[in-house]
Amino acid sequence: MIDVTDRHCRYFHRLLAPKARLYTEMITTGALQYGDVDRLLRFDESENPIALQLGGSDPAALAFSAKLGERWGYDEINLNCGCPSERVQKGAFGACLMAEPKLVADCLRAMQDAVSVPVTVKHRLGLDDEDSYGFVRDFVGVQYEAGVRVFIVHARNAVLKGLSPKQNRDIPPLRYDWAHQLKLDFPDALFVLNGGLATAEQSLAELNRFDGIMLGRAAWHTPGVLREISLSLWPELRHEPDEVLVQRIYEYAKQVVSEGLGLRLATRALLGWPHGKQGARQWRRTLSDAPTMNTNNPDVLLDAWKELENAQAVA
């Protein structure tokens, strides 16, 4: 979710799901060592519980980055061993790390030694045309021996050559049964299912077999699914009505603009919010129109909301 789940996106997602655990986009160790740490790690306190997802393959650099994350208030540090992009492969981290389980274990040990918050790992089932459950079982086993007890399983292989990151989310077959077998083989570890979860109904059904579910692109394209899941899991929590959420985002957008940032940053995660409803197309058109958004006037959001309400009233 690089360039997607930034702090602005997460602020909106937290409003939809008050208790869900949020994850940052993958942030590389190099960026934290040499980049703008405040820009990369800053988040609104309302986002807790929140996990920092790191990309890297050097144990010392990951330990340094994990320590930074804990200092900034993150509740979990996650190592990404699932991203298949060529950019990530050139940095020798992401999914290609699954070919080096002992190196991953060294990285995770170093991270655990550096922080007191949980250290977790996100991974795939295999690489390229690997067609053996034993591959992922052994990978998880090595990390388990290193002390890891939370595994986020994207239940597909990662094809490192020949498929784009988008194709890697669709073409390699889903194998939820393999992911569930990991849960059976390591009963005192926690397994969170990721990959192919698109609806609230499907996601809630998988919670009967797994300790958690992680939504990625579904939360971006159809964020309303987060609200549906949250209402089912935690009906006792206060879930603000849509008109209140719009007002909260409006106030947030004013703050973002006052910081000298573009309005688009505060609103782009909202594009798919009314997915499937009357007026959704016009909502997306308004909030993605360059001349309109370049005015940096947060009132654009309120105007778009009025148009959406009017379209639904007519329908």
Name some characteristics of this structure:
eight-stranded parallel sheet, 17 helices, alpha/beta, 315 residues, 10 strands, TIM Barrel, two-stranded parallel ribbon, 2 domains
Task: Provide a descriptive summary of the structure in words.
The chain has about 325 residues and is of the alpha/beta class. It folds into two domains: about 5-235, Alpha-Beta Barrel (TIM Barrel); about 240-315. Helix content is about 50%, strand content about 10%. It contains 17 helices and ten strands. The protein has helices at about 5-15, 30-35, 35-40, 60-70, 85-90, 100-115, 135-145, 165-170, 175-185, 200-205, 215-220, 225-235, 240-260, 265, 280-290, 290-295, 300-315; strands at about 20-25, 25-30, 50-55, 75-80, 120-125, 125, 150-155, 155-160, 190-195, 210-215. The strands form two sheets. Strands 1, 2, 3, 4, 5, 7, 9 and 10 form an eight-stranded parallel beta sheet that branches. Helix 4 links the parallel strand 3 and strand 4 (about 75-80). Helix 4 (about 60-70) packs parallel to helix 6, helix 10 crosses helix 12 (about 225-235) and helix 15 (about 280-290) packs antiparallel against helix 17 (about 300-315). The mean pLDDT is about 95.
Number of domains: 2
User: Number of helical runs?
Assistant: 17
What string, H for helix and E for strand, traces the elements in order? HEEHHEHEHHEEHEEHHEHEHHHHHHH
> Do you know the CATH topology of the largest domain?
TIM Barrel
State the CATH superfamily name of the largest domain. Answer: Aldolase class I
